[in-house]
Amino acid sequence: MKSTTITSLLVAGVSVLPLVAQAQSQTEIVQEMRRTQAALGNMQTRMNELEAALKQKNAEAPGMNAEQERELNRLSVMADAQVDANTSMGIKGLKISGSIDPTYIYTQNQNRAGFQFLNSSLTATGAPEFAFDNGAFGAAILDIQKEMESGTKFHLTLIPNRVGAGNTIDGKSIVHEASIWMPITGLDGTRLLAGQVPSWEGYEALESYRNKLITHNLLFDFTIPASFTGVGFEKALNSKYTLKTMVANINSSKKPNSEKSTALVFRADYFDYAQEFTYLALVGMVGKLPNYRAAGASNPITTVAYDGTDALVKTLELEGGYTRGDWSIAGQVSVGAQRNAAITADPVSGNLRDSSWWGASTTVGYKFNTALEGVVRLDYLNNQKNGGGTFGGWNFADSRNGLGPDPVGNPEVGANRSEITLGMRYNFNANTVFKVEYRYDRASLPVFVDVRDGTFKRDNQLFGTSMVLSF
To answer: Keywords for this entry (predicted)?
Structure first.
């Protein structure tokens, strides 16, 4: 800029000389040239002053000095190197999360109180031991997800010892979920899925950090499957509607000999975020599932293994949730039936009969402040036909969970079950929640055994508290 300005001025000065020469003498011309040179010199000095002032202003203005620029360059190189390393080591797109929830439980009829954490879900004889007071809590969960650049996602969830989808299948597996979710090229919003996934039924989640209370509702415990193992797809129809379906084994990682049929399961979801949060879902299942009642044992849950007999099961469920301000509500209504799976056989022919059930559950929460929330849950399970019974092993009288007919009454009528739970949860920080609950279970018949004297009662009381840490 400086040299260009000076040159322009010189050119302008030289261009006027012929005109000056015509009007003035040589002496006057020389004097004029000297005056012009002096003016140019003054201009150069002023320009130097202005340049110095500009440099001073730039130095005073916010910005990085030379040392800061070197540090920025060094960090940029390190960041690029870290990205390359993450990609080469498979860390890119990897998410690891998990939780633990040490729990204290008092249950009246079992005459038991103490901590439950990482206890085995098997009895001393190796049979599964699942109950509403010994369910999916007191666990350590590790969740691993990896999303590749192609959009394909790998999902693995491990739950050692405690009740997860895999553990429900054989009493030993720690794998709760092992699945692949792969986008299908050319079909926007469609993903192929395969592997073992937890059941899609139920408004409550199995994991404690996702569940408002400690225990689960009656429908969750006794009327929904644990897992689907097979192949299917998920389709996002638009921003509000999603459809999932699978052809799968239910509660089984491998079909036994002589069994070739699978089940069809589906879930259709509607989400609306316009009014904070609203969702509705229709979930269904039809197909052959293990029928422990047909195994011919008095109670295969505690005595014998499943012998490979399957029977047709049909379930249908409508669930939903709504959150607005400090209030939240969620719930479900369910119906279901399984062929030849009722607790009581025909009293004349001795043939097995169908089991059937229906029920409803709802949970209401209110936040007193940002940290403290009160929770109420109400459940009802109608299970009286043919002595009662659902599926997945609940095809026999169970005096711990209050299922089946009165031991000294009419074997044709099973007990209907209900429960109310009052709870509080306190968010201590972003990762830690403290829970406390009181639960009262009621049956229409005396079907709860009191282990202190062996008598049968119509009700049971439970108190629980837990600390849930998630990351």
So the answer is: Coiled coil, Signal
